[in-house]
Amino acid sequence: MSGSRDVAIVGAGLSGCLLACFLSRRGYEVTVYERRPDPRAGKAERGRSINLALSERGLNALRRIGLAEEVMVDALPMRGRMIHPANHFQPPLAVRPKRGRRPIQVEKSSVEGKLDFQPYSVDGQRAINSISRGALNNALLDAAERAPGVQVVFDHRLVGLEPATGELTFETPQGKVQATAGTVLGADGAGSAVRGQLLAHDALTESLDFLDYGYKELSIPPAGGDFALDPGALHIWPRGTSMMIALPNPDRSFTCTLFWPNGGTRSFASLSSPAAIERHFAAHYPDLVPLAPNLVDDYQHNPVGLLGTVRCDPWHAHGRVGLIGDAAHAIVPFYGQGANCAFEDVVELDRCLDDTGGQWARALPLFHQRRRDDTAAIAEMALENFVEMRDKVASPAFRLGKRVEHALERALPGRYVSRYELVSFSNTPYAEVRRRVQWQHRAVGAAALVAGAGLAAVGLGLSGSLRSLVTPGSRRH
Ligand code: FAD
Question: Which CATH class is domain 76-127+209-306?
Fold first, then answer.
């Protein structure tokens, strides 16, 4: 059983299909069971199109099976964030009167200032890539079906699992179906049925931390046949209690994702009529309104998705069942890393099979041990990035901080590297990114103190003390 050659993967999503390709190269017989019908035959679910930001970690995994180039044909590079600024004080705004005069009601525009482009990397050239999750999944499904020894079975929803024996029960349009596999890998996403079965068998513990926020997709169609916004950027409308982002699509449209609290007076539920929706967007996202003719329809009919962090322990049971990707460690989407991290999982599990001579009973615990800290680190960084995107990116202090950070990167190439760069443009383990960034911040703070100067001065001419304090030592892959 421990070195078994027949593997059942539950879930033909992003990680399940990629994993099937990797296992095929090792000579395994793989059956991938997917609850949905074949997505290549039908239309995407309304409001669930999701375009992903694919970055280095995901590309690194795709390169290993020769799929990166094919996938990148449909990707659009985004070299920075484009901030759509707002005035947080909504109209009408009462201005303090001069003595003896009546208060003046000023109709202050809710949006002021210019668009602000903030490059992701110091040279402005590195990009994350906007890609449709559906298109990426379809490319991976094609690759899995082409891979020797792999079979993909649709319309099979896992409803039962005996972890000790590998017996699986599926619901299909024809009724219940049973199967058995030497090894069972749960790649069935955040709401994983495999994880649920392990929980029911007391094989793991789990915690699900739902955010108070949900998300809803809106759309910006092409304007006069062209992109309505700059397609070379990830657009952000930071609004404090809410936030919207927009990513470009190859058909010259943009998919917007609005993040907003699930309940309360300012929440998705608070806009119940077309007039209320129009008023809200005119006040808070006025530059979106003329670009989004389907705004009211999208808002009323697209579902609100849940966001949360999944933690469970361990990710394996009985030496034959394992979890991977979102099934093991779903995270909130604010660092654009969920899929990238799931792809990185596949590379690491493959390495664990190498390091254990293909013994699943050793490879699965080793995989958990090696990935636990990294996935916990990106889960935390993703939550922190929500606050950054929602509240901070528009502030002058944040912009100054970014300029100082880029100045440091130019002055200390390879020695001072920003967190965004390490997460999105390198394969440095996430836990190491977190440690290194904390160290860099301490070093910069200490250097600024030693130099007796503020950070701005540090950005202009770096002192010798800073050079000695910021040390290299990052493990790059
Ligand atoms: P999934 O892709 O969810 O695949 C799971 C599969 O299992 C599905 O096909 C499902 O139908 C199937 N399944 C489920 N239950 C069963 C069952 N009982 N039986 C059989 N099959 C089953 N990540 C990024 O890297 N960059 C981004 O920019 C990004 N943006 C995001 C934006 C939003 C709004 C959201 C919600 C997520 C975003 N993500 C992003 C995260 C990314 O989508 C996920 O991390 C990624 O899809 C996880 O891949 P997976 O294979 O683990 O799970």
Answer: alpha beta
At 333 the three-state DSSP class reads: helix
* pLDDT tens-place string over residues 175-208: 999 999 999 999 999 999 999 999 999 999 999 9
**Average confidence (pLDDT) over 327-346:** 97
Distance, CA 49 to ligand 1 centroid (Å)?
Answer: 11
Measured in whole angstroms, the distance separating CA 344 from the mean position of its chain's CA atoms is: 13
Percentage of the chain surpassing pLDDT 90?
A: 70
> Looking at residues 91-112, what average pLDDT do you find?
38
- Please determine, for residue 113, whether its predicted confidence score (pLDDT) is greater than 70: no
Q: What is the dihedral of CA 221, 226, 232, 234, to 10 degrees?
A: -10
- Residue at token pair 């004080």: 89
- 325 Cα nearest atom in ligand 1: 52
The response to whether residue 213 sits with its C-beta less than 6 Å from ligand 1 reads no
Q: What separation in Å is there between the alpha carbon of 133 and the centre of ligand 1? A: 9
Q: Does the structural domain 6-75+130-208+308-386 have CATH classification 3.40.50.1820?
A: no
Q: Who contacts 175 (Cβ-Cβ below 8 Å, separation ≥6)? A: none
Q: Calculate how far, in angstroms, residue 141's C-alpha sits from the geometric centre of ligand 1.
A: 14
